Amino acid sequence: MRIRFFGQRNILGGGFFFSEFSRAARELAVVGSWIEEIDPDSPEQLSKAIQSSKADDLNIWFWAHRGIAKVRGLNVVWAIFESTRLPEPYLDLLMGNSTLLWVPSAWGRDVLLAHGVSADRVDVVPEGVCSRNFHPFLREPRPVRPSPFKFMAIGKFEERKGLRQLLEGFGQAFSAASDVELYIKADYFLDHERKRTELEAVVKASGLQNIRLVFGTLSSADMLALYCLADAFVFPSRAEGWGLPLIEALACGVPAITTFHSGHTEYLSSVRDDVMLIEHDFEPITDPDYVRWWPSRNADHGLWAKPDPATIARCMREMIDSYPLMSRRALRASEVIRERFDWSRSAARAFQSLCARGLLKSYITSG
């Protein structure tokens, strides 16, 4: 039996997901040796996989790629999305070519079921966090109130990440403060220079002098150092498939302020009492960046959260006022996150799903 992982190793969140999940799966005895990685965006690799594929192969796709219709075997597809409504072309590709769908959260499963997908075709397989790279053991003890107090936000500069609402809330709380800073790392994977210029213009227009922008590709060690630099993490995201920066910050023991909606509720539910939650309403998705990547046949792109800037301001002030308590809670959350959501757990859940559905062959040998 051959198990093919169709995905791509790169510096983006999806590439990190593919790399870490594949590594953890390969560490499983016997079945790990059956795994072959295929980059479906490589014409040469995809063509070779199509030609050599057999009916009993197990193909696991890390996104809904068009090549799925050409490869023989049973197809398992990760369905990872941010909206309450899925575009028809995406849903058609999922439903027409998959034996089983994996979603990283119960929220994602509910969205699929609301679209008429049968429950027996969907399993929740949470993604993970690299607990060997992201941990609290290098965080220096903080005073009762660090000065300057450093808030950190990480996420692409797009409407989905709620950075405009964050700037508004931060301005309400600390516009005149000289001892509070907000660090923002908001690289965009496409047209980076234009996006960087736009973000710099937004920050300049805010009139805030205590914003620090961070750009550039960083190693895992450098990202750990960045998380350790932060006194608190702010994640006002409107919607996530998983929310990698937030779970990494939590694994590092950084006190967190976050929305509670969409994919990141899967792990936040385990530490909900240890984080501060941003109040939100819901609003229709009209953002051109989102629509570009999720084209639909109609104008309904679903809903996502609308984080409240006033609540962001209140949470940030409360974070500073109750910092010793939130620091203790953050260490408790770190232990839970690293224990329950390490990538090895994700790989185990995935193979448990395959085994329960009879999609893996069993071999019994005698010595």
List the helices and strands and how they pair.
Layout: E1 3-6, H1 13-26, E2 35-38, H2 43-52, E3 58-61, E4 74-78, H3 88-97, E5 100-103, H4 106-114, E6 122-124, E7 149-154, H5 163-174, E8 180-185, H6 192-206, E9 211-214, H7 220-229, E10 232-235, H8 244-251, E11 256-258, H9 265-268, E12 276-277, E13 280-284, H10 288-293, E14 303-307, H11 309-321, H12 323-340, H13 343-356
Parallel strand pairs: 1-2, 1-3, 3-4, 4-5, 5-6, 7-8, 7-10, 8-9, 10-11, 11-12
Antiparallel strand pairs: 13-14
Helix pairs in contact: 1-13, 5-11
CATH superfamily of the largest domain: Glycogen Phosphorylase B
Cα separation of the termini: 22 Å
Oligomeric form: single chain
How does the helix and strand content classify structurally? Answer: alpha/beta
CATH class of the largest domain: Alpha Beta
Mass-distribution shape: globular
Note poorly predicted spans: 363-367
Average pLDDT, to the nearest integer? 95
The strand line-up of the biggest sheet is: 2-1-3-4-5-6
Described by strand count, sense and barrel closure, the largest sheet is: 6 strands, parallel
CATH structural architecture of the largest domain = 3-Layer(aba) Sandwich
Provide the domain count: 2
CATH topology of the largest domain: Rossmann fold
Q: Kindly estimate the percentage of residues that lie in beta strands according to DSSP.
A: 15-25%
Number of helices: 13
Please tell me how large the radius of gyration is: 21 Å
Order of helices and strands: EHEHEEHEHEEHEHEHEHEHEEHEHHH
Helicity, as a percent range: 25-40%
DSSP, total strands: 14
